[in-house]
Design goal:
The chain has six helices and no strands. With 139 residues, the protein is mainly α. It is found in: Membrane.
């Protein structure tokens, strides 16, 4: 029972807090208004794809070169996080039988991160705690 609760701790916590929010009627809590369909937030301002060279005025060339340093730091951060997660999950004590499935999982993370970046969505990362919890739930 304890392991099951540990595996599903986040969904259980979300469900409990939603029930608490609905049960307390004398306090107002701000809710997120979600549109009925999958669409751009402000279609009059921008579309799905944003021009990387600037939509209102040209993107300065000096800023392209200046953005190399932050991009390199983000690359190092994601690379190190992925490698540390891979080392933790690939330990012999986890007894991974299907190693190719783990590599396919990493490939999907990379592909989804690239697609997310193109559409301005949040990046996916190989978050260590979530990955270890996922591996524990699978074994």
């Amino acid at each position: 029972v304890r392991r099951t609760i540990g595996d599903f701790g986040v969904p259980i916590a979300i469900l409990i807090m939603v029930l608490v929010d609905f049960s307390i009627t004398d306090t107002y809590t701000q809710k997120l208004s979600v549109p009925s369909g999958f669409k751009v937030t402000s279609p009059e301002k921008r579309g799905w794809v944003i021009n990387p060279l600037g939509s209102e005025e040209p993107f300065p060339v000096w800023m392209m070169f200046a953005s190399v340093l932050p991009a390199l730091l983000v690359y190092i951060l994601i690379f190190m996080e992925t490698q540390i997660t891979t080392l933790i999950i690939s330990k012999k004590e986890r007894m991974l039988v299907k190693g190719s499935g783990f590599h396919l999982d990493l490939l999907l993370i990379v592909a989804m991160g690239g697609i997310s970046a193109l559409f301005g969505l949040p990046w996916m990362a190989a978050t260590t705690v979530r990955s270890v919890t996922h591996a524990n739930a699978l074994t």
